[in-house]
Amino acid sequence: PECADQRVLAKHLYDSYLKSFPTTKAKARAILTGRTTDKSPVVIYDMNSLIRGEDQIKCNYLTPYGEQNEEVAIRIFHRCQSRSVESVREITEFAKNIPGFVNLDLNDQVTLLKYGVHEIIFTMLASLMNKDGVLIADGQGFMTREFLKSLRKPFGEFMESKFEFAVRFNALELDDSDLAIFIAVIILCGDRPGLVNVKPIEDIQDTLLQALELQLKMNHPDSSQLFAKLLQKMTDLRQVVTEHVQYLQLIRKTEVDMDLHPLLQEIYKDLY
Amino acid sequence: KEKHKILHRLLQDSSSPVDL
Lengths: 272, 20
Known about the structure:
Oligomer: heterodimer
Order of helices and strands of chain B: H
Largest sheet of chain A: 4 strands, mixed
Strand content of chain B: under 5%
Helix content of chain A: 55-70%
Structural class of chain B: mainly alpha
Shape of chain B: elongated
Number of helices of chain A: 11
Helix content of chain B: 40-55%
Radius of gyration of chain A: 19 Å
Strand content of chain A: under 5%
Radius of gyration of chain B: 10 Å
Order of helices and strands of chain A: HHEHHHEEEHHHHHH
């Protein structure tokens, strides 16, 4: 009966995940490997292809700040921000559907999201990446890693640590139903700074961890130690987020006119 | 609470949680 409960929980989280996140890993992998009847993504690999791509890609977050006149590196950086804000909204909706989450102290819910969202953003970004580039605008475009690397300092280095993490993480070959539980586990971390009431958070996470372990055993019977390997990735994720915050601090120092979205300001303030 | 007012708002938005 306990296993049955864990399967119900896994199914519930997967359903919530599909409702909350429009671009699934399944869809992204189909586009990246050409296994889809949809139009191939527009490949952006230099300044000319970027300009062409901007005409071809229909997307409401492509030019959110009326920024066509902005320098390319800053334009791309702004788009990353817009996408991150959208991701925070999606993750919040997903979190609310984790059984027990909305019954937690409201300030603890805020703390869990504050510390969890970027780990989740980089986990899900890996689904859109391969070693050569990243899907953008819901799979309408593919921006190459080399192009991103060629952006002027300090923007050129901004995505490298995410690609390095993605390549290692994608080697685990998780699918969307695995990721749904993993993401819930990340949110319900009882060791986030400033939590008021840790016990109920750890209780929910214990249940989620049991569901994750069973899910991985059933979905990847030949992949030994996958559960342990996945838990280790949580440490890597914290490192990716710490580096990300350091980059942002550098960018805010060197780019005096750089504005940060108010939601992201809230999240980054006193983070690490 | 003031420090995280957008996160608070997102959490208290309409969409209702689903109970198992």
